[in-house]
């Protein structure tokens, strides 16, 4: 699909607050003007400004609107199906409008079956460089988080379903993790309490370091167990490539094999 650069590219830098919107079938560029409304959906022009999911009857003819007010573009779902925003945020027909931040925002319109129709939005911000192509610039590596040897072993075992890229993975329980670690590293005396302590320490450290997903509750002083927070931890470590599938080889060690 198109990159944010391709959405905002033009002969000259766009005016601050300019909206660039693109779907599979085309794109538009709209200057910020108070009261301006931009619509998208299955319908055709002039009923909608941007056609989306034209062959999918689950997509409403006018499925969403973007309105410019208070110096921001506001997104509203006007269709029968849900709209999904980054980080899994869902919008219903009854949801309040959401302001768009400067930069790139992908919007997914739920269609038939497993289909989702992408609407790419880009709002020109104050630091926008004019979206000059950077084809020959070095690729920025992902943010990799620091883990010591014990933490990596623990999280690989606990998050093995994530490392297999399974659909809807969940972490192993402390009890399951302790059983496997006791078999793989019997000399390390892994216990549920030690696992609890290690996981809490990692959560607090990465939270303080700016981890992209919530790892602690508001006012949390280190609550020992929260499956949703642990899911966030493993998800973020996988997405950042801090943990990668070859790490599963740590679980292949034979505890009866003498080290060389």
Name some characteristics of this structure.
disordered N terminus; 6-stranded antiparallel β-sheet; single chain; 5-stranded mixed β-sheet; 6 helices; 260 residues; alpha+beta; 11 strands; 23% helix
Write up what this structure looks like.
- This protein has 260 residues and is an alpha+beta fold.
- Strands 2-1-11-10-7-8 form a six-stranded antiparallel β-sheet. A five-stranded mixed β-sheet has the order 4-3-5-6-9, with no helix packed on it.
- The protein is elongated.
- The relative contact order is 0.12.
Estimate the mean pLDDT confidence.
87
Rounded Rg:
23 Å
Largest sheet strand order: 2-1-11-10-7-8
Number of β-strand runs:
11
Principal-axis shape equals elongated
Find the structural class using helix and strand composition: alpha+beta
Summarize the helices and strands and which ones pair or pack.
Layout: H1 4-8, E1 19-23, E2 26-30, E3 37-41, E4 50-51, E5 64-69, E6 72-77, E7 83-84, E8 90-91, E9 98-99, E10 103-110, E11 116-123, H2 149-158, H3 160-163, H4 174-184, H5 192-208, H6 227-239
Parallel strand pairs: 3-4
Antiparallel strand pairs: 1-2, 1-11, 3-5, 5-6, 6-9, 7-8, 7-10, 10-11
Helix pairs in contact: 2-4
Give a short synopsis of this structure.
This protein has 260 residues and is of the alpha+beta class. The chain has 6 helices and 11 strands.
């Amino acid at each position: 699909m198109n990159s944010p650069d391709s959405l905002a590219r033009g002969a000259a830098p766009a005016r601050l607050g300019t909206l660039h919107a693109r779907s599979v079938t085309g794109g538009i560029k709209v200057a910020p003007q108070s009261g301006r409304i931009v619509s998208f959906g299955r319908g055709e022009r002039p009923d909608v400004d941007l056609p989306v999911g034209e062959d999918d009857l689950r997509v409403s003819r006018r499925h969403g609107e973007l309105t410019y007010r208070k110096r921001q573009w506001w997104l509203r779902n006007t269709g029968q199906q849900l709209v999904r925003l980054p980080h899994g945020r869902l919008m219903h027909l009854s949801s309040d409008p959401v302001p768009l931040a400067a930069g790139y925002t992908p919007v997914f319109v739920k269609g038939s079956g497993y289909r989702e129709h992408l609407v790419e939005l880009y709002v020109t911000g104050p630091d926008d460089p004019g979206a000059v192509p950077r084809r020959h610039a070095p690729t920025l590596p992902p943010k990799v988080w620091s883990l010591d040897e014990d933490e990596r072993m623990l999280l690989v075992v606990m998050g093995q379903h994530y490392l297999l890229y399974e659909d809807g993975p969940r972490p192993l329980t402390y009890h399951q993790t302790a059983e496997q670690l006791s078999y793989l590293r019997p000399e390390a005396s892994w216990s549920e309490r030690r696992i609890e302590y290690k996981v809490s320490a990692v959560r607090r450290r990465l939270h303080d370091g700016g981890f992209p997903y919530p790892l602690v509750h508001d006012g949390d002083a280190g609550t020992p167990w929260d499956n949703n927070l642990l899911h966030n931890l493993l998800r973020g470590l996988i997405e950042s490539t801090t943990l990668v599938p070859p790490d599963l080889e740590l679980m292949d060690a034979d505890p009866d094999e003498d080290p060389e």
